[in-house]
Amino acid sequence: MSLELREVVLTYAPHTALECRALDGVSLRVEDGEFVGIMGRTGCGKSTLLQVAAGLMRPAEGTVLVDGEDIYAPGYRRSRLCERMGVLFQYPEKQLFETTVEREVSFALRHTDLTMAERRERVCRALELVGFDYQKVREQSPLGFSGGEKRRLAIAGVLAARPGILLLDEPIAGLDPVGRQEFLALTDRLCGEGVTVLLVSHNADALADHARRIVILENGVLAADGPVEQVFSRREELARWGVSPGQAAECAEQLRTRGEEVPPDVIRYGELLPYLLRMGRRRER
Hints:
With 285 residues, this protein is an alpha/beta fold. It has helices at 46-53, 78-84, 101-105, 116-129, 134-137, 147-159, 177-192, 204-210, 228-232, 235-241, 247-257, 269-284; strands at residues 3-12, 20-30, 35-39, 61-66, 69-70, 85-88, 165-169, 196-200, 213-218, 221-227.
């Protein structure tokens, strides 16, 4: 499912002393099954971009298209948008409220035409996707799980609706390395099944390993949009935008300053390892 923003403008507190243009003519197209990482310094417009794309905030100017349909056009059925798009805000585990896991995960399905059996099948599938056994957890309180487990339950609640587009705002913030890797592996799997993913994160190493494209916002303007390797190789501009290319890229740069022949597009730990091994072998001689 494709998503497109055309010349989107959104201003907070317009015509007041606090006026702030959060998005300034942003145009972006994401194709079916793409995994796009969104980066930028705090306050640059990342979360606002997701909210506009999700139909939660109407832009002052511009158009938002989902599969070619303008979601803000008169007559557009908003319930259809809810069926197509899943949104996960930062720290979703704090938003759990139902009495059982099954009720929590099925909440978004209550006003659909699905039968009870169809809802149960979707809940079971969503829980399995995030690593839970439906029969073991269905009657448990979602509030009794650990922080990481609660986040996985919140994600299951989004996945139960089977959205074609996932908008994720800092979903890996605060997760331990294992939880982070499990979540990113899940997004990879969903992309492989045709789900379109936009993920806001400050974790450049995670995005380098999993995203296909990187979009960088600066003061509400689209500053960069391209393949991960190309964007993360623009070191001087990244520093100006307040974005780190990640620890692997920083390590590669340190090796280059020491005279090692490491290509500028080395931005992942897996790509860096052969050069580190080569250095180790030289020192052993």
